[in-house]
Structure formats: structure tokens, C-alpha cells
Amino acid sequence: MKNLLSIADLSRDEIITILDTAGELSRVTQGPVKKLPTLRGRTIVNLFFEDSTRTRLSFESAAKKLSADVINFSAKGSSVSKGESLKDTAQTLEAMGADLMVIRHPASGAAQLLASSGWIEAGVVNAGDGTHEHPTQALLDALTIRENFPEYGNDFTGLHVAIVGDILHSRVARSNVLLLKAMGAKVTLVAPPTLMPYGVGTWGVDTAYELDQIIEHCDVVMMLRVQSERMNGSFFPSEREYAREYGLNQERLYRMKSGSIIMHPGPMNRGLEISAEAADSTRSRVLSQVKNGVNVRMAVLYLLLGGSIAGDN
Ligand code: CP
Fold first, then answer.
1. Active site residue 134
2. Which residues pair with 29 in a beta bridge?
3. Using CA positions, which residue lies closest to atom 5 of ligand 1?
4. Known catalytic residue: 82?
């Protein structure tokens, strides 16, 4: 495999291979040898046309732990402001030696375009394209779920995951639905009608319009950020009303099932989709997700660029 563009391109076995490799690389790099020589001499370009904290920095950290060279490109402050195209930008960075490009872009399909256009030889990883997909986020979420529910192993049948909030604009939700279904989980999408995507009935998941209906029954409550930057209209009457109806507040936190966990891809809007009490509670796995982000991205870089664990010993 040369590219990672969508969870839909991965078989269940390939998903499990990535999760297992992430676990193995995490164990190795937490030991006395913090850095593996696997990708020495390879160059990874972080090509970011949208802001990011977790994804960009974790790809950078992952690449460095595998001894790759990293070039960070951010559209802000670049010649994109002078009108330079995606094609010219990508070809310029490939001329600097890129073996793999990690792209985040506000346009859905941008990663697919870069991979299939023939503009570059380098492999492409989708780090979030518009409202379409964010495959490495879903992989790190699955790793976090697997760690927290070891009794399920690689078969999430019987595990109930609620994905709550701004489903309409969420690439995280789309990638997670594909991955969680592949692993056998029961998924319920919870959103106000205005933030539930058209055609969601074909996604093969349950839907609900009231968080209070299901909060007590879920093993995983995955809260989504309200993506105000993608909203060109009013999708709910007020932030106060959204927080009251769909926010994970203290009262709902107390009603959560024993052993259940809270996830959020970040960045969090505290006080809107999640209260400080919930975000900082013992159920919260937000920082485990960040840690697993580095591990999953190490695995993706390692597998795409053909590293070999055996060769490192
Ligand atoms: N979860 C996520 O994609 O976060 P960033 O936007 O900070 O990368």
C-alpha cells in the first residue's frame, strides 16, 4: 500500500495490522531505545492547508521517532497566498526530496486528488480533507477503544459507541463509522436534525436526536467539536441551547454506564459540546487519544514506507 486516503480502502485485517503495529512500536519506543533507525534517509512532508495541533505535531513526532527527516509546510505564510496551486506546491516539495506527503486540506477529496493526479511520485496520507475523512484519527480512536476494552480484542461486537454532535461537518465521524462497523461495534449517531447528514440512513448505523435517550447505555461516548468555521448559517438557536440538549455536562456524566469512557478528537469547545467536569473526569480518554495518535502515525509511516521491525534488532 502506497497511500492512506480513506478507512474504506482498508480491510479489517489491514486495520488490525495497523493497530498491532502501533502497539508494538509504542512498546519499543517506550523502552531504552527511544528512536528507531527504520526510516533514516526518508523525508516526510507535512502539507497543511488547515490549522492543526494534534495531527501535524503527532505526525512530526512519529516521523522523528522513526528517524525520518521532516519538512513542515503550512499554507499560512507560504506562497499559497500568492496564488500557488496545490500541484505546484506539492511538486516543489517533492523536488526537495519528499518520500511521503501528509496532507490536510479544507476541500473534501484533496488527498485523493493529490494521490491520483500523477503530479507526484510520493505516497499520500490523508490527515483530514474537508468534511470527508480523517482516517488516522479513526485508527487512533480504535486503538484507544481496544486498550480500554481488552475483553473485546479485535471484535467489537456488543460494544456500543455513541458519536455525538456536529456529525454533518465531521470527517472524524465518517472515518469512525467506517472503522467501527468494520470492527463490529454498534454505532449510534446523536445530533440535532440540522446537524445530521442527509442520507445518513444509508450509513448502516443507528441515529438518535436525544442524547438523554442513550447516554446510560453506551460504552463509549465520543463527543464531536462543533465546527463553527464550516457553518455558513445557523444550525441551532444558541450555544446555550446546544450545550443543554447535546453537551456532555455533569448531570449526564453521572448517568454514564459503569466502565464507560469519554472520547473527543480535540480541540474541545469546553462549555459547549463538553463541560470541564466531563473533559477532566476519570472517564475522559482525551489525552490517551493524543498519545495513541503518535503510535498510530508511527505505524502508518512505518507500514507505508516499508520499514521492518526485524531489521531494527
Ligand atoms: N483531532 C484533530 O485532528 O486535531 P487537530 O485539528 O489539532 O489536528
1. yes
2. none
3. 52
4. yes
